[in-house]
Design goal:
Layout: E1 2-6, E2 13-17, E3 24-27, H1 30-35, E4 39-42, E5 47-49, E6 56-59, E7 67-71, E8 77-83, E9 96-101, E10 118-121, H2 123-126
Parallel strand pairs: 3-10
Antiparallel strand pairs: 1-2, 2-5, 4-9, 6-7, 7-8, 8-9
């Protein structure tokens, strides 16, 4: 099943080769909290951009280990490329994952990000 999504203006479009996760993730770090993103995590090879990479903008903060991408026209945050941190906070130094802004998914079988189960991670104190 391919999940489809797009930014507000429709300039950035993507597909995810995969299913909806059991729960979305809400991070409490300063960046995620201000954006209001609900993350769905996937492997990098599961993302297929349907628009040119040149149409996206990138923001990196502090350690520069996380690349946050957003539409260069409407500013809508689309996805983030992050280290694949384990629940205990460890990372093997190479494995990555993508946090996809699940609020951008097209409705699939009644999916609505705002009413979906959410797991909260303490990014405010954990990063």
């Amino acid at each position: 099943m391919a999940l489809k999504g797009s930014c507000h203006c429709g300039k950035t479009k993507f597909e995810i080769d995969g299913e909806l996760p059991a729960a979305l993730t809400r991070c409490t770090c300063s960046f995620c909290a201000k954006r209001g993103v609900l993350w769905a995590y996937y492997k990098p090879n599961q993302l297929r951009l349907l628009t040119p990479e040149s149409d996206r903008a990138e923001y990196r903060w502090r350690t520069k280990n996380v690349a946050h991408y957003f539409c260069d026209t409407c500013g809508c945050g689309t996805y983030s490329d992050t280290p694949d941190l384990q629940p205990d906070g460890t990372w093997d130094g190479k494995t990555r994952r993508l946090g996809i802004n699940a609020r951008l998914f097209e409705e699939v079988n009644g999916f609505e990000a705002a009413t979906y189960p959410v797991t909260v991670i303490d990014g405010k104190n954990g990063w």
